Amino acid sequence: MKKLFNTIFAGVHLFAAVVLIILSLIIMLWSVYDVISAIKDDSGFIPLMLQAVAAIIIAAAIIDVAQYMMEEEVFKDKELRDPKEVRRTITKIIVIITIAVSIEGLVFIFKAGTKDISLLLYPALLIMVSAILIVALGIYQKLSATIEKTEKEDA
User: What pTM did the predictor assign?
Assistant: First the structure.
C-alpha cells in the first residue's frame, strides 16, 4: 500500500514539475516575442526589455524548482535521507530563491532609474533581503554542519 501511495505521489510531483517547466518556457517565449515586437514598434523598448528580463529570471527560477521536485520527489528514495542530504536540499532551495530575489532587485533598480528615483526603496529592500538570506544560509550551514559533526562523534 505504501509503495502505491509513493508511486501516486511521485506521479503527481512529476506532472506538477512538467507543467511548471512548460509554463516557464511559455513565459520565456512570450517575453522574447514581446521584445521582438517592441523593436518593430519602436515604443518603450528599454522598460519592456527590463520586464522581459525579470520574467525570464522568474521562469528560470520556476524551472529550478521543477528540477528540484523531480530530483527529490520523483527520482530519489525519500526513506534514505540523512542530515547531510537534507542540508544540501535546503541549501539548493535557498540559493535558488536568493538568486531570483537579488536579480529581480537589480532589474527593478534599473526600472526605477528610468522612472523615478523615489521608487528605489522596493528594489533596495529586495537586495537587502537577498543579503539576509545569504547570511541566514551561512548560519544554517554552520549550525547543521556542527550538529552533524557532533552526531558522528557520539556514534
Answer: 0.67
DSSP string of 30-65, one letter each residue: HHHHHHHHHHHHTSSHHHHHHHHHHHHHHHHHHHHH
Cα angle value 18/22/25 (rounded, 5°): 140
12 band by pLDDT with thresholds 50, 70 and 90? very high
Domain edges within the chain: 1-79, 81-155
Please answer whether residues 54 and 71 qualify as being in contact, where contact means their C-beta atoms are separated by less than 8 angstroms.
no
- Non-local (6+) Cβ contacts of 58 within 8 A are 27, 100, 104
CB 99 within 8 A of CB 129: no
Q: Is 131 exposed, middle or buried (CB count within 10 Å of its CB: 0-12, 13-18, 19+)? A: middle
57-116 pLDDT, tens digit each? 888 888 888 888 888 778 876 554 667 777 877 887 788 788 878 888 887 887 777 777
Asked whether the beta carbons of 137 and 95 are under 8 A apart, the reply is yes
Q: Closest by alpha carbon to 49, among 59, 40, 36?
A: 36
